Amino acid sequence: MPKNHDLVEVERFQGIKYELRQARTPDGKTAERLHNAWIWLDNPSQYNSYTTDMVKSVILAFRKASNDRSVNAIVFTGVGDKAFCTGGNTKEYAEYYAGNPTEYKQYMRLFNDMVTGILLADKPVVCRVNGMRIGGGQEIGMACDFSVAQDLARFGQAGPKHGSAPDGGATDFLPIMVGVEQGMVGCTLCEPWSAHQAYRYGVICDLAPALKVDGRFVANPLVITDRYLDEFGRIVHGEPKTGAELAAGKELLKKGAVDLSKLDESVEALCSKLLMTFPNCTIKTVSSIRKHKLLHWQTNAESNREWLGLNMMTEARAGFQAFNDGPKDKREIDFVRLRQLLAEGKPWTEELVREVSPQYKK
C-alpha cells in the first residue's frame, strides 16, 4: 500500500474548491485513472481576493495535488468570469491587519508559503486566467509555470497606489519575464496590461477569445488587436482604444456575453500535451526553469516579509483603509498632500492619516 505523504487530511477546504478532472490525450480519449487537479479560488463577490483561511487552504490544496500520484498537472484558477484573483482581501487587511505589523508578518509567512508551494509543486502548474489578475493575484499567477488567459482579462500591480510594494513576487518575477525596464513600469505605475499586452510581453503563453456576440467569438473590443508599428517603430498591440473606437467597443461589449469555453479548451489542450511526456523528465525540466524565479524569491522573501509587516503602521495602513472605506469613486489617498506633509517633516500620526484619506472628507 503506498504511503500517504500529506501533512494533514483535509475534508473541506475554506474559500477554495478542489476538483479532480479526468485527464485526456490530445485526441480527446480518456486517460483512465489519471487526472488534472483544479484548484479554484472561491470568493467571486470580492473578485477572488484571498483571505487568511483561503491562503492556508491553497497551501494544503497544492500539497495534496502535488502528492497525488494520479495527477498529471495542476490548474490554478478562480470562480466566475470577472477575476482570477485581485490579491489579498482588502477588507481583512483594512479591518484587522492595518496598524498590526506583528499579525501581518504572521500572515505574510502564510503568503510566502503559498508562493513557495506553487514554485515547488511536484506537478506542472497552469494558471487559468479567467478574469482580472491584479496585485497579489498577479504574483501568485506568475509563480505558476504556464498562464493561459481569456482575452478580456487584465494584468497588473496595485501596491504603490494602495500603500504597499509588490514584494510578494512581482519585484522578483516580473523583471525576469518582461525585462527590468517594463518590470519597473509595471511595478511602480500600476497601469494594467490587457491580455494581449501580457501575451506580447511574455507574461502568458496563450490567450483565448471570451466575448461571444450573435453566436460567434470576437476579440476584446476595448483594445487594439491589430499588430502594427507606430511612427516611432513601436509595436502597437493590446493598448486601450480611445475616442469613438473605445465607445464602439463598449457598445459591442454590452451586446455580448462572456463564454469561457475557448479558455477551457486551451487549458485542457496544454494539460494534454504535458500528459504526453515523461513525467520525471518533465518535472525536472520545470524545476530547472523555476530556479530563475526561485533564486530571486528565496533571496528576498523573508526581508520583504519583515518590511511589509512594518509598513502596516504607515502607508499600508492608510492605503488599505482608504480603499476599503473610501467612496467608490475615490479609493486612493491624496498623494500630493501626503508628500507635502512628509516634506514638512510631519510624523505618521492619526491626524496625518485623516488629513490625506478620502473617507474622512466631507
Mind explaining what this structure looks like?
The protein has 362 residues and is an alpha/beta fold. The chain has 2 domains: 16-210 and 259-311, 2-enoyl-CoA Hydratase, Chain A, domain 1 (Alpha-Beta Complex), CATH 3.90.226.10; 326-360, no CATH class. Helices cover 46% and strands 18% of the residues. It has helices spanning 52-67, 90-97, 101-119, 136-142, 159-162, 170-178, 180-189, 195-201, 243-255, 261-275, 279-311, 315-325, 335-343, 350-356; strands at 16-24, 30-41, 71-78, 83-85, 125-129, 132-134, 146-150, 154-156, 193-194, 206-208, 211-213, 216-218, 228-229, 235-236, 257-258. The strands form 4 sheets. A 6-stranded mixed beta sheet has the order 1-2-3-5-7-10, with helices on both faces. It has a 4-stranded mixed beta sheet with strand order 4-6-8-9. Strand 11 and strand 12 (216-218) form a beta hairpin. Helix 1 (52-67) runs parallel beside helix 3 (101-119) and helix 3 runs antiparallel to helix 11. The longest helix has 33 residues, at 279-311.
